[in-house]
Description:
Blueprint: H1 2-38, H2 92-95, H3 146-154, H4 169-176, E1 181-187, E2 193-199, E3 208-214, E4 219-226, H5 244-251, E5 256-258, E6 265-270, E7 284-290, H6 297-301, E8 308-310, H7 314-318, E9 322-329
Antiparallel strand pairs: 1-2, 2-3, 3-4, 4-9, 5-6, 5-8, 6-7, 7-9
Amino acid sequence: xxxxxxxxxxxxxxxxxxxxxxxxxxxxxxxxxxxxxxxxxxxxxxxxxxxxxxxxxxxxxxxxxxxxxxxxxxxxxxxxxxxxxxxxxxxxxxxxxxxxxxxxxxxxxxxxxxxxxxxxxxxxxxxxxxxxxxxxxxxxxxxxxxxxxxxxxxxxxxxxxxxxxxxxxxxxxxxxxxxxxxxxxxxxxxxxxxxxxxxxxxxxxxxxxxxxxxxxxxxxxxxxxxxxxxxxxxxxxxxxxxxxxxxxxxxxxxxxxxxxxxxxxxxxxxxxxxxxxxxxxxxxxxxxxxxxxxxxxxxxxxxxxxxxxxxxxxxxxxxxxxxxxxxxxx
Length: 330
């Protein structure tokens, strides 16, 4: 029994040794095969970071333009382009150029040296309306329309609207149409020329001169002149061709005149507190008269310009003077 047991143990031990040997040989064979696959110069394969999938780089974003603190601003109603940056929008100053400030009239600008002074015919009259303050905005020029056409057809000068003190050449053109208003030199006393706006220059019956206190800017009414064959009516109903008696009726009383000068012209010097002394709108009037061409020269020369006469004077009435020029001024 013992001999059999020992033999069994021995056989079992030999089998175990054989199994271990077979395992070791299998490991050696596997290592040899791995070495053959990698090659003699290659290291065993090791996974690296490069084998990991690389995410796609994001598309480059355009650089934003720096915004300035003083970005242009648009006026209400100014069209803008949504595809442009704020600083690239068209500024209002690029669309509208500011008008230059009005230039004062030179002190050497010609004035009416020998025409009757407007204020001379208004002694004792009420003072003109006060000028607008520094912050006042001039009234807007009215557009031409039925009212303007009616004014032109009526041919009546009133001391407001286009003939107000703060009027301008532009306002006249907008009221009476640009084709009916020109700016040119006009005759003044003494043979001098004065720049003025002329309404209806090609029509003697509708012709009217407007002189400006600021000739450079063509603004601020200085004188409105009715002469020649013009049929315009001045404030108070005055117009060319009226006699002394007709003027007294408008004035509601006699008035004073200076006698005839070398050119045969007499002038109203004082309305003597009559209705024509104060005109609506703060303007003043001055009138020139000429004697009837049939009047005796001696009778005219006897009424010298160095003296003042009443409109009711018989000697003055005898030479039958009529209005030859009307001045409306401020």
